Fold:
Amino acid sequence: MSFLFLFVFLAAIVGVFRPYLGRKRWHFGLAAFASFILIGVFAPKPDPASVSEAGTSEKERSAAARPAGGKAEAAEASDAPDTNWDYSETTDEMRGTTTKFARVVSENEVDLDFPYGVVNGYLTVRQQKKDGLSIIFSVDKGQILCHSFSDGYVSVKFDDQPIRRFSCTGASDGSSDVAFILNERSFLTSLKKSKKLIIEGEFFQKGNQQFTFKTEGLNWQ
Structure:
């Protein structure tokens, strides 16, 4: 049906420019307009299935054209282990030196009673030009019994390895909530291989207390 109206439309267009059969131009113009409308009404509708398939094919082509880099980057990110380590650094402007830190917070809390209350434990790896490598165990507040004059030590357990003792000493400024773990290189070597660490230290009037750390993914050169 649409082909018939198309033929009428073309004949009417010719009549607009070169009237024939004794008709006036506006007659042919009206016929052309009417036939144009009827062509649109009776034109075959597109198949919805074919439209859907065409849209799907276009999406597939677009997806195929995307670079594979995004997938590769996502794969690399998923391969990297989750880590609880926080990294920071400070700069001594006067001496032109930089101190680097990596710190992890304990998974558990310990109640040290009044006046300290519930505290977290912290393990910090520090590298500075003056003192070199330091391994620091600390709490929010409390008194860790680790003094150079009393042969203080902490017990540590890396993953399922045997329990080891590391000597420790207090901070030079007398802070009681900080202990420096000695034999730093050996400790760091085991720490970088571990996923879990338990540190047991002795606290004033609270005896031995344990703090558990998730240590996987330490990035330290």
